[in-house]
């Protein structure tokens, strides 16, 4: 049990909208007493103590770190809790993967609230490694660490009354758990019906108008700013009028981004924008705790001593982070130890050949052909259909690097010898080489993009040989791999070392020509069929608006 201690600071009460000097007394991991000086205003000579920040929706797996390592990096930025959807590892390992996350999280004093994955597999149009049934969800709800039903991506199933979907939502009601939504672009009456079915949040809004529709329907809106999807600028002004139902989240955040900042960065930006500091802190600290009923202290007498000490209420530079009365970070340094853990996995793919990525032309004499290319966007998960003309040679289609039309492939990692699905993509910008990743939402097959079949095969084989990882290869012998032996999603290494290794492979991706801010994060979403409009699964090119497969040839 942490020792007793006291510290002086301006104590922030978000509900009362006050900051007053006091001595905080901590004993047995709790706030035993708040001894106010009697002053009505803050003492500018003192730092500020306030409840810690909460990431209201994140897939810890996307940090490439196991939960205990994620916590080591996050506490430096004043994060004390996350609402964590483990559906990434659930798609690979099923309930066993969720249990791995729970077991690993117990090694840290950090507050992890995990959800029961609602959509594993995400769709029937891809190959996943496991299934999580309604019966599995009911069993997970027996565990106190499972605090909610994780994002219900099958919004068509909700609107059309799918029996299995409705049973999962009914179980959440039965066990008094909130239900997270996931319905990008859903508007008007459909949004109202979705909310009325029990969806309480949405983190997928990419316009203010969409968010307003869902707020009017009674949902809470999560402002997302991750490594690939960045919606802060589009949504943050909603805080002026709707602070009671706004939260901040990262959704997916790579380790290099986590080194630089977390929810603290969003708080800083919002306050600098002129939004009332109390509204910002309500979104960052209070709303997630109330909505998900988190067992996280709010800096009141009797609460768990979960709080942070910051320089001021403008820059929010974190000086100290406390969890359950334990000092876990100070002046930019984590004080949490690294813990040993196992590395469960599910990886059956066998080495590939360049010929596996060949795409036949309409006929053997064609010199070019029109294809349905995916258009990806920096900072967005949505894509567009962007027709392109690519060269043909001796009956086979090739990438057109000069016009930024590259090959994209998804290789089934759960079945040895499965034929890869191949399409074309614009917006990646590679001038040479290829990238490959075993992180491919949501089923986490191997996704790769490249300028030639030979480079794609090299990158994919690096991932296969390691049974998971991120790989970048060039045409001049360049070759980097970040192994991800934990379910092909996470490293078994120390968090800061993983961030350094990721930075190196990300740097090579950009040296190969990609202008994207986070090429591997963007690549990981090119197989996410539930986000429109055109994506690629291991079974083929998929139209996310019509919800059907389409031909690569236009």
Question: Can you put this structure into words, describing what you see?
Answer:
It is a single chain. The protein is 26% helix and 27% strand. The mean pLDDT is 96. It folds into 2 domains: 53-296, Metal-dependent hydrolases (TIM Barrel); 354-549, no CATH class. The protein has 554 residues and is of the alpha/beta class. The protein starts with a strand and ends in a 5-residue tail after the last strand. The protein has a 10-stranded mixed β-sheet with strand order 17-20-19-18-22-21-24-23-25-26, sandwiched between helices. Helix 2 (87-93) crosses helix 3.
Low-confidence stretches: none
The major sheet is characterized as: 10 strands, mixed
Principal-axis shape equals: globular
Tally of individual domains: 2
Radius of gyration: 24 Å
Q: What is the CATH architecture descriptor of the largest domain? A: Alpha-Beta Barrel
User: Could you report the average pLDDT, rounded to the nearest whole number?
Assistant: 96
Which key terms come to mind for this protein?
8-stranded mixed sheet; TIM Barrel; globular; 16 helices; 26% helix; alpha/beta; 554 residues; 10-stranded mixed sheet
């Amino acid at each position: 049990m942490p020792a007793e201690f006291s510290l002086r600071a301006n104590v922030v009460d978000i509900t009362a909208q006050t900051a007053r000097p006091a001595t905080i007394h901590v004993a047995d991991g709790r706030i035993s007493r708040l001894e106010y000086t009697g002053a009505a205003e803050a003492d500018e000579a003192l730092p500020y103590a306030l409840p810690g920040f909460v990431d209201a929706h994140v897939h810890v797996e996307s940090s490439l770190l196991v939960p205990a390592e994620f916590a080591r990096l996050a506490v430096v930025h004043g994060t004390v809790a996350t609402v964590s959807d483990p559906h990434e590892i659930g798609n690979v390992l099923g309930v066993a993967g969720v249990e791995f996350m729970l077991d690993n999280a117990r090694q840290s004093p950090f507050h992890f609230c995990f959800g029961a994955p609602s959509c594993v597999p995400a769709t029937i149009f891809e190959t996943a490694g496991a299934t999580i049934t309604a019966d599995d969800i009911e069993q997970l709800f027996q565990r106190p660490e499972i605090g909610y039903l994780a994002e219900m991506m099958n919004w068509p199933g909700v609107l059309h009354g799918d029996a299995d979907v409705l049973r999962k939502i009914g179980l959440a009601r039965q066990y008094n758990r909130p239900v997270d939504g996931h319905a990008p672009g859903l508007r008007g009456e459909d949004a109202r019906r979705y909310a009325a079915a029990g969806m309480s949040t949405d983190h997928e809004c990419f316009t203010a108008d969409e968010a307003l529709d869902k707020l009017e329907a009674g949902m809470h809106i999560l402002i997302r700013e991750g490594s690939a999807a960045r919606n802060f600028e589009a949504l943050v002004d909603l805080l002026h009028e709707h602070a009671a139902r706004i939260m901040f989240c990262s959704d997916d955040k790579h380790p290099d981004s986590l080194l630089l900042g977390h929810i603290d960065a969003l708080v800083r930006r919002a306050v600098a924008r002129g939004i009332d500091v109390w509204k910002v802190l309500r979104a960052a600290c209070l709303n997630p705790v109330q909505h998900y009923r988190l067992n996280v202290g709010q800096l009141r007498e009797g609460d768990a001593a979960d709080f942070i000490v910051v320089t001021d209420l403008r820059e929010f530079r974190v000086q100290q982070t406390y969890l359950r009365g334990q000092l876990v970070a100070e002046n930019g340094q984590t004080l949490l130890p690294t813990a040993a853990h196992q590395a469960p996995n599910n990886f059956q793919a066998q080495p590939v050949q360049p010929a596996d990525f060949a795409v036949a032309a309409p006929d053997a004499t064609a010199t070019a052909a029109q294809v349905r290319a995916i258009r990806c966007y920096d900072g967005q998960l949505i894509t567009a259909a962007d027709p392109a003309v690519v060269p043909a040679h001796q009956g086979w289609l090739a990438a057109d690097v000069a016009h930024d039309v590259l090959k994209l492939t998804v290789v089934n990692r759960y079945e040895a010898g499965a034929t890869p699905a191949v399409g074309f993509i614009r917006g990646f910008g590679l001038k040479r080489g290829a990238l490959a990743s075993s992180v491919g939402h949501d089923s986490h097959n191997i996704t790769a993009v490249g300028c030639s079949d030979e480079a794609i095969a090299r990158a994919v084989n690096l991932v296969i040989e390691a049974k998971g990882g991120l790989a970048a290869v060039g045409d001049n012998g360049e070759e980097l791999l970040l192994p991800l032996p934990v379910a092909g999603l996470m490293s078994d290494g120390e968090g800061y070392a993983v961030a350094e290794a990721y930075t190196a492979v990300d740097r090579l991706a950009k040296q190969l020509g990609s202008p994207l801010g986070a090429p591997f994060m963007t690549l990981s979403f090119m197989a996410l069929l539930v986000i429109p409009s055109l994506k690629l699964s291991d079974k083929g090119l998929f139209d996310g608006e019509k919800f059907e497969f389409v031909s690569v040839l236009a």
